[in-house]
Amino acid sequence: MSVEAVSWALNDAPDVPPACLAVLIGLANHAHANGRAAYPSQERLAHYARKSTRSVRTDLATLGRLGIIRRGDQRHVAYLPTDRRPVVWDLAMERRRTVPGSLDPFAEPQPGRPTEVPEPVDNRPEADFPPVATGRKHSVERPEADFPTDRKQASYKPSLNHKEPSFRASAGESSPKINGKKTFTPRALTGAALPVQRDAEQCPRHRGSSAHNCGPCRSEALAGGR
């Protein structure tokens, strides 16, 4: 693809019939920068121009008769089979048409400084809002000080009144006496020690047992009745 050849076909190629312009641009798309050695197939040109191959052959003949294209060096397609060799065309890029005066400023760059683009003008009125007066200073380090609340702030310091929970020996714990003997229950079976309810009535003989439902007293009563 040659940008120079396509630009010539669009802007400078003279006496191009409008019906043949698409075929000429298709040839320029395959030509070198000097406009030579363009050999697309007629099927390819028909695909570009949305025409039949018969119409493409007619357009090529018209462009050749007007001197816009001419046959080039056919050795460029010598490597192809004889029955599949397209015709090599050269574009007559030395021929140029006169550019209309209304398009002349846009066709060639103008000398001198470019026209300065004026800056956009903002016609919106400037908004002037007075600052809001506050009676306290805002703190950056402690933003929560600006919003007083009744709740006490959480402290990350350890409490002096905090007491660690007490646990009995890990090996086991003692159970109430049964028949005057102290029993030993493994901790794995009993779990953590439950707090003793001080307000409930206890058995006067066996501390830790309820006065109305004392297990050791029932065991002694059953042993005495035997």
In short:
The protein has 226 residues and is α+β, with helices and mostly antiparallel strands. It has seven helices and four strands; from the N terminus they run ααααββαββαα.
Verbal overview:
This protein is an alpha+beta fold. It is 26% helix and 8% strand. The protein has 7 helices and 4 strands. The chain has helices spanning 3-12, 21-30, 42-49, 53-65, 104-107, 187-190, 215-224; strands at residues 69-71, 89-91, 172-178, 181-186. The strands form 2 sheets. Strands 1-2 form a two-stranded antiparallel ribbon. The model is unreliable at 169-173 (pLDDT under 50).
β-strand percent reads 5-15%
The SSE string, one letter per element, is HHHHEEHEEHH
Please provide the count of β strands.
4
Largest pleated sheet:
2 strands, antiparallel
How would you describe the oligomerization state of the chains in this entry? single chain
Please state the average pLDDT score. Answer: 75
- The proportion of residues forming helix, as a percent range, comes to 25-40%
Low-confidence stretches: 169-173
| Cross-sheet strand order for the largest sheet | 1-2
Distance between the termini: 121 Å
* Class inferred from helices and paired strands: alpha+beta
Inertia-based shape: elongated
* Count of separate DSSP helical elements: 7
- What Rg do the Cα atoms give? 54 Å
